[in-house]
Amino acid sequence: MLVNDTKAQEYLTIDKPQKFFIKGRIFKTVWKKPYGRYQWFVVIRKQLHHSLCFAIVNGGAKSMAKNRARGEHLAVLYSTSVSPPEPDKEEGIVFGPLAVIIEEGKQNISPFARLDCSRVFTVEDCLRVMKIGRVHPDFHEKLDEYYKKADSRLPTSTKRLRNPNPRAG
C-alpha cells in the first residue's frame, strides 16, 4: 500500500489513496504552520483526489491559546490501551472522547492530544505522509456527528451549495 523511494524515508507517498485515506485514518505530514513543521490529521471524508480532515492539536490551557483552539470545538483523543484522560476544566471541552488505535509502533498519542473540530482541512492524496493509526470504528458515528456540527458552523460561502431542484431554471 505504501510506495517507498528509500528505505530510510519515514514519509511516503500512498500508492492506493482510496484504501488508505478512509474515515478515521490518522496520519502525519509536513505542513506549513506558525508553530511547527509537522501536523497530524484525522480523515473525516474521502473525496476523489483529496480528503477532508480535522487537525490534531495539543490540549491544555496554554496550548489552546497558542493553537487558537476553543473547548467547544475539541474532543479528547486517547489510546485504546488506556482510559480517556480528564481534560483540564479550563479547556471547556464538550465533545466526548474518541478512542484511537495506534498502528505504527514508534508513535503514541499524548494525553493532551485533542481533535480540533473547528476547521476542516483539505489534504491532497499526493502528499508524503506517515501512518499513525485510526479512530476506533466504534467512534465513527461520533466523528460524523462532530463533522456535521463543524459543517453547520461554516459560512455559507464556503459550503458546497446544492440545487434542491436540479431541473429548475
User: Averaged pLDDT, please?
Assistant: 81
DSSP helix fraction: 10-25%
Gyration radius over CA: 17 Å
Shape summary:
globular
CATH structural fold name = SH3 type barrels
Query: What is the total number of structural domains?
Result: 1
Q: What structural class should be given to the helix and strand makeup?
A: mainly beta
**CATH first level: which class?**
Mainly Beta
Helix-strand sequence: EEHEEEHEEEEH
Would you report the number of β strands?
Answer: 9
| Largest pleated sheet | 7 strands, mixed, barrel
The number of helical elements comes to 3
Domain DUF6590: 32-144
Protein name: DUF6590 domain-containing protein
Organism: Pseudoneurospora amorphoporcata
Structure, described:
15% of the residues lie in helices and 38% in strands. It is mainly beta and 169 residues long. A hairpin with a 2-residue loop joins strand 3 and strand 4. Residues 32-144 form the DUF6590 domain.
Quick summary of this structure?
The protein is 15% helix and 38% strand.
For the structure shown, list the relevant keywords.
SH3 type barrels; 169 residues; globular; 7-stranded mixed β-barrel; 15% helix; 3 helices; mainly beta
Topology of this structure?
Blueprint: E1 2-3, E2 12-14, H1 17-20, E3 25-33, E4 36-46, E5 50-58, H2 61-67, E6 74-79, E7 98-102, E8 113-124, E9 128-135, H3 140-153
Domain DUF6590: 32-144
Protein name: DUF6590 domain-containing protein
Pfam family, one: DUF6590
